[in-house]
Amino acid sequence: MRRVLALRDPIRLIPLLFLGAIIVGTILLSLPFATTAGTRAPLLTAVFTSTSAVAVTGLIVVDTPTYWSGFGQGVILLLFQVGGFGIMTSATLFGLMAGRGFGLRDRMATQVERSRLEKHDAVTALKLILAITLVVEGVVAVILAARLFGTYHESLGLAVWHGLFHSVSAFNNAGFSSYSDSVMGFQNDPLILGPLMFAVILTALGFPVMQDLRTNGIAWRRWSLHTKITVAGTAALLAFGFCATLAMEWHNPETLGPMGWGAKILNAAFHSVMPRTAGFNSLNVGAFHDETIMTNFFLMFIGGGSAGTAGGIKVTTFFVLFAVVLTEVRGQRDAGLFQRRFGREIERQALSVTLLSAALIFASTTYIASISPIPLDDILFETISAYSTVGLSTGITADLPPTALLVLVMLMFVGRVGTITVATALAIGGRDRPYRYPQENPIVG
Hints:
Layout: H1 2-8, H2 10-29, H3 43-54, H4 64-67, H5 70-84, H6 86-97, H7 104-110, H8 122-150, H9 156-171, H10 190-205, H11 207-216, H12 225-249, H13 261-273, H14 290-302, H15 315-330, E1 336-337, E2 340-341, H16 344-371, H17 376-387, H18 402-429
């Protein structure tokens, strides 16, 4: 009986669903015909690739188009499509397939990080997610395929495949590419980079924001606080990433330096989007200046919006903490934004998620640095990218020792389900004690 209850507990179901998908993906990628050589992939390679796909990260230890066969690439596409639906969609879909209704606890647990989906029926939410997925992926795939067929003279079948693969990868913020150099071959093509940016930005906002925009349009006053913070925060972070990349890489001969004005602006804009957990690269990340890498640390750690396909600690988490700090600096009583105050429980959740995430990244980076001669900044970039399910890399992934790759596997898994699980557990697991201890304040600072 306890086992049945454990499986029905959504908080425990979240990691189990993703773990099951990773296991299935590993088995499929271990089949001989999943590789172009017709031999079984090493177990670690299959596990790493499967986890990266399900966690919609995009880190790779082998070249996707040359190592994996058409079947293997199809499995990878299916895995990041499943992973991209997110915990909320997966739990909702499983509940509907089983023919069970959702109680209050189930609804709260299948939403992600206390999103506004608690106000909508599970069926409505599922229909919205499916509709947006099919429409956006379909439109972007058609645009990309048409461009690849008409301008780059790829065969129709190949153009359709590349268009579909990149469309699904972009929509799910997966970062996998069916080209060996990601999208560096399209540095001067806004009709390739533009649709990819659109898909990434849209889904990085999160489904609650999409629902709010669908219902209230551009009426700012009618938006929820969550939507206002996510949209305004996303715009600010994109602008910051764009300006920082453009300024710091303007004269770098290995990145923006040789390009004209238009290409520099296009690629700086594209890269400002990718650290938000998408993972495509049109520039050589390994050639970035140190200050640009530092900027990417910041952007990757924050990630995108809640209840979507993005990773990181999330935009709302960061700006809640920012508002708390600003409130303390101003000597005010209540923290909040846009003429709304936050509850104390939200502040504690934001602080808990951020500190736990930072601690895990710190511990993982320290361990990998102790067993690998790779420079510390490259390792830190890799661990943040893995935990935040970004997929960008300075090119060290395949050079890491097996134990370090297992650490990255753990980071990708925890980064995808950990923050969701922790935030959900904090949201529904709080209990008030019938008593309070006497107050005494330690010295801070």
